[in-house]
Specification:
This protein is mainly α. The chain has 13 helices and two strands; from the N terminus they run ααββααααααααααα.
Length: about 375
């Protein structure tokens, strides 16, 4: 193996490993914040709102760094380094790679643009709210099963709103996922109806988020970092009246946690992970492929569920474990079927990287 290919292998492994660590850590930390009364407060809307605020601040700082990186790139001398090959001939070397922060645009909030994104922001609020409520009410080991109907809603809503036909192979995959969902629900010892319903609603809003994202991305020049900034600013505003109405009394009576440095540290780290998952998702897709990213995500979900049995003390059952792997297996087969169908469609028209867009925009959950 050459040094170049070995370095590439190490880079891919590090990116995939970082994705796994960030994703699993984010779920586990959010579970603590949603359900551990000793560390957090029973106010999931407030916790979610704070994470949106942290994301806005990070986007703003990243935008400032991006401006500086772009300015430095524009003003720095453009040297063209020359190398010689084994025959002694001069060949130009590869240009220097742009700064990591160059991908982040300036964080600007234009009211006209924000109004066009507002319908997506409503869906986004529903998505992250139901996601965190699901995580609060169900066991971590059951979390992936409770939210497993996303691809079912994806196919159904794509057929209704976008007119995308559904193949028989896709329907078989959906049947496997639904079967796994039913098996997992039946095998869950600490089954929570509210938590499962929240998971189903989260799956619905994740699918709606993907569809609305495709429609509004052109408004922000197809830049998902701009969309992240607008979405989280809008969400931060939308959450305020909900927090006042539903959690005002809870927050007023939680002075001990609100004055705890451990509470705010955990909240801030969770907010940072919420932003970072978007970065590592993009990095993993670029370092591998959308298909490999989905395979990695499926394997990560399996490890996350199995670790939860040990870390959180969730008692496994045969039906529950079979449900987890049936859901993940159906999702993985669906990925292969979808990629195969997209490859066939690409022969007659230019490919549209919809799967990558969906992964980038739904990675927060």
């Amino acid at each position: 193996m050459s040094e170049g290919s070995q370095a590439q292998t190490v880079y891919i492994a590090s990116v995939v490993g970082t994705y796994w660590v960030v994703s699993i850590s984010m779920v586990y930390l959010n579970k603590i914040l949603m359900s551990n009364e000793g560390i957090s407060i029973p106010a999931p809307l407030f916790v979610t709102w704070y994470q949106c605020v942290v994301t806005v601040l990070i986007c703003w700082v990243a935008g400032l760094c991006g401006q500086r990186a772009q300015k430095n790139a524009a003003t720095s001398p453009q040297y063209s380094a020359v190398m010689t090959n084994e025959n002694g001939e001069s060949v130009p070397s590869n240009p220097p790679k742009p700064s990591f922060f160059a991908q982040f645009p300036k964080a600007e909030y234009v009211m006209g643009t924000a109004k066009k994104i507002f319908p997506l922001s409503l869906v986004f609020v529903g998505m992250i709210t139901f996601n965190n409520l699901c995580l609060k009410w169900v066991e971590v080991s059951f979390y992936n099963v409770a939210r497993s109907l996303t691809i079912v809603f994806n196919v159904f809503l794509s057929r209704v709103f976008l007119g995308i036909p559904t193949s028989c192979k896709t329907l078989v995959c959906l049947g496997i996922v639904i079967l796994g969902f039913l098996m997992g629900s039946h095998g869950e010892l600490n089954f929570s109806l509210l938590g499962t319903l929240a998971g189903v609603m989260s799956s619905l809003f994740v699918s709606l988020n993907s569809i609305f994202t495709k429609k509004v991305l052109p408004v922000v020049d197809d830049n998902h970092w701009k969309l992240t900034f607008y979405n989280n600013v809008n969400a931060s505003v939308l959450f305020i009246p909900l927090i006042i109405i539903f959690e005002g009394d809870v927050i007023m009576n939680a002075q001990e946690q609100l004055t705890s440095s451990a509470f705010w540290s955990a909240m801030s780290v969770a907010g940072f992970f919420g932003f970072s998952i978007g970065i590592v998702t993009v990095l993993q897709i670029k370092a591998t492929s959308p298909l490999t990213h989905n395979i990695s995500g499926t394997a990560k979900a399996a490890l996350q569920s199995l670790m939860a049995f040990y870390i959180w003390g969730n008692q496994p059952t045969v039906m529950g474990v079979l449900g987890i792997f049936t859901v993940l297996g159906g999702s993985l087969i669906y990925t292969f079927v979808k990629m195969s169908e997209n490859a066939k469609n690409a022969q007659s028209q230019p490919p549209a990287p919809l799967l990558q867009k969906e992964q980038e925009m739904t990675s927060k959950v």
